[in-house]
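User: Predict the full complex structure for these chains.
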Amino acid sequence: MSLFGSKFYDFFTHPDDPALMAIEGKRYGYSGIAVMGHDKNEKTIMPDDFSIYRGVEIQAKPSRIREEIKKYRDSHHILIVKGGEDEINRAAVETEGLDILVHPLEFNNVLAKAASDNSVSIGFNLGLLIRLRGEARVRELKTMRINLKHARKYKLKLILTSDAHSIYDLRAPREMVAISSLFGMTEHEAIDAMSATPLNILRRKSLDYIQEGIEVI
Amino acid sequence: MKTIPTLREKKRYLAFEVMSEKTINRQDLVREILNSMMSIYGDKGATEINPSLMSFDGKFGILRCEREKRVETRAGLACINNIHGIRISILVLGISGTIKGATEKFIQQTLVNKPELGKK
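Assistant: Here is the predicted structure of the two-chain assembly.
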């Protein structure tokens, strides 16, 4: 299948040992991962054509989220907010400069509109589906279905993440596509969510990028 | 007795590799695979997928499934996270129409390539 010829990225991982995660990630078929809040990126030995990006997960009170995003906005790190209640989601999507809002609860049309205005991608945390069973998983699947519906309507960028804490939480791209089909995502959407959207975020984070349509040549 | 070819089940064989903290035995893996699929697709879905473990040596294995249910089988395998507290992840190496094909194409290939993984 030529669909799987593109580069795949996982933008939400918290490994204790990034080097090991990088080796496993490459074997699974990824081209890069983003590690949350890890400073020692330069020292880790990386396999060829694999990159580790630094991400910042913003955890703060709803009233503080806006300031936190503004603080990190120009740092060229990938900014991620783990969604939750309505207030957190609202503060996150209404601030310019955020890249990904992972797994928001109680997502609605107002938030989706704001997210589309500020080009915030909606993350689907597939790690929850891997780890949970039964009633809890039903709840998460339902949330994901609602998020997907809104994302389609407002043409938001989707992104699939594994939320991996160790190498045992990582799944290969084809498996991620299979899991995402559980809540109604098509193969095309899932592949775009692992390759096109992350590449777009990386382009926006590059030093040459100034604004949509303007670039240093 | 063998039935006529048109009435036979159309099947596919998935070659997979298990990564785990400790080695796990065959019986636990079979139970967990069925458990995971029943949890996602229910009794009806699990019978439609019709999974059966053909061989497993502690690291590599081959699982048979229905031809039209490859994606569902992958999802079922991917959702396995731990067996009796031992963390585990399953990587599907490839899908083939015969056991011989799955073994030669994917499992032996992986074994041949493994020493080179470090060098490359």
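The mean pLDDT of chain A is 87.
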